[in-house]
């Protein structure tokens, strides 16, 4: 089983355990909204642009609501579980290449919005994958950082991002936690930060990620 499929299965189980009204880290979204978002990504390519482009967000929101009305929460969860769908299921290896991180981040969006949670112990090869992706995408993920960032992976590895001049904040943690930090989940990532207090505060408030 690929890591993407494992995340699908675990996330689907958690959806059903928590129910449609459970909170998530995605502002304004419940578990029901998150499930419909995941189904939309794979099965409604016409609505994908609105995820990133505000001018098209209205259509995406309408499609998301229509998916909720048509399938219900349990139906959407089953569609998430049974994936990959669409192009992700047609092109060999695309699900693992594209959806592993998407599913992991949203799995944690659901887990970490609950009253109690602890970081998962992840397979070493998955942590290694996350570190490779963070290093490769740090320019994109940290492009809106107001300060320089030095990512220190526990176990070895450093990646620099953000502005090259001025203050720099050292962010230390496992690759999975650095990934979540760089994807805009700063307040919920288990990392250590060091640097000027004002610069740390600016980084914590920044809109990081894609």
From TrEMBL:
The organism encoding this protein is Planomonospora corallina
> Which InterPro entries does the record cross-reference, listed alphabetically?
CHP03085, DinB/YfiT-like, Maleyloyr_isom
Q: What is this protein called?
A: TIGR03085 family metal-binding protein
Q: What is the lineage of its organism?
A: Bacteria, Bacillati, Actinomycetota, Actinomycetes, Streptosporangiales
Q: Which residues cross the membrane?
A: none
């Amino acid at each position: 089983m690929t890591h993407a499929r494992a995340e699908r299965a675990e996330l689907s189980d958690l959806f059903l355990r928590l129910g449609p009204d459970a909170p998530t880290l995605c502002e304004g979204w419940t578990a029901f909204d998150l499930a419909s978002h995941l189904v939309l990504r794979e099965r409604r390519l016409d609505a994908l642009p609105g995820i990133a482009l505000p001018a098209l967000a209205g259509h995406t929101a309408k499609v998301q609501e229509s998916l909720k009305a048509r399938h219900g929460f349990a139906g959407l969860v089953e569609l998430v579980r049974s994936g990959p769908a669409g192009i992700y299921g047609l092109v060999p290896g695309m699900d693992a290449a594209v959806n592993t991180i998407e599913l992991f981040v949203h799995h944690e969006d659901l887990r970490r919005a609950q009253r109690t949670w602890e970081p998962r112990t992840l397979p070493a090869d998955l942590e290694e994958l996350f570190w490779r992706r963070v290093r490769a995408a740090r320019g994109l993920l940290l492009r809106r950082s107001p300060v320089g960032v030095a990512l220190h992976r526990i176990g070895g590895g450093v990646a620099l991002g953000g502005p090259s001049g001025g203050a720099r904040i050292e962010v230390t943690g496992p690759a999975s936690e650095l990934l979540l930090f760089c994807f805009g989940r700063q307040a919920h990532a288990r990392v250590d930060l060091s640097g000027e207090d004002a610069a740390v505060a600016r980084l914590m408030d920044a809109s990081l990620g894609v």
